[in-house]
Design brief:
By secondary structure, this protein is α+β, with helices and mostly antiparallel strands. It has 3 helices and 10 strands; from the N terminus they run αβαββββββββαβ.
Length: 118
């Protein structure tokens, strides 16, 4: 899904499609709340993502996957740091769902670091 978002924005597409899963849906909801994408919609077994552009440039400048299937990255709440001096967000999979690192720090819960978005 991260590669689809990156490639869609590099190709200046308005809409991209990814297969539906609850995990992807929850990540996209966080990106929508923080203003990195314009909208999401569920169609049968796919998710339609409306990409966002600001002044002709993509809203997502950098999307970097941290934890992979071959190497998971876990951090406790006190080791979660801000990304790009607070301008970007780090998504963390916690026991309370997928949260930005600032919220996870506020709730004092750690988890698996999924990606960094700027």
């Amino acid at each position: 899904m991260f590669t689809t978002l990156r490639n869609g924005q590099l190709a200046r597409k308005q809409i991209v499609l990814v297969p539906y899963s609850n995990f992807c849906w929850n990540i996209l909801n966080v990106l929508l709340v923080h203003g990195y994408i314009q909208g999401i919609q569920k169609n049968n077994q796919t998710i339609l993502i409306i990409l966002k552009y600001i002044d002709g440039g993509p809203a997502i400048h950098e999307l970097k996957q941290v934890s992979r299937s071959s190497q998971r990255v876990y951090k406790p709440w006190n080791r979660l740091n801000l990304y790009q001096q607070g301008l970007g967000i780090v998504l963390v999979s916690t026991s309370k769902g997928i949260l930005p690192s600032a919220k996870a720090f506020e709730y004092k819960i750690g988890g698996e670091v999924l990606c960094q978005v700027f």
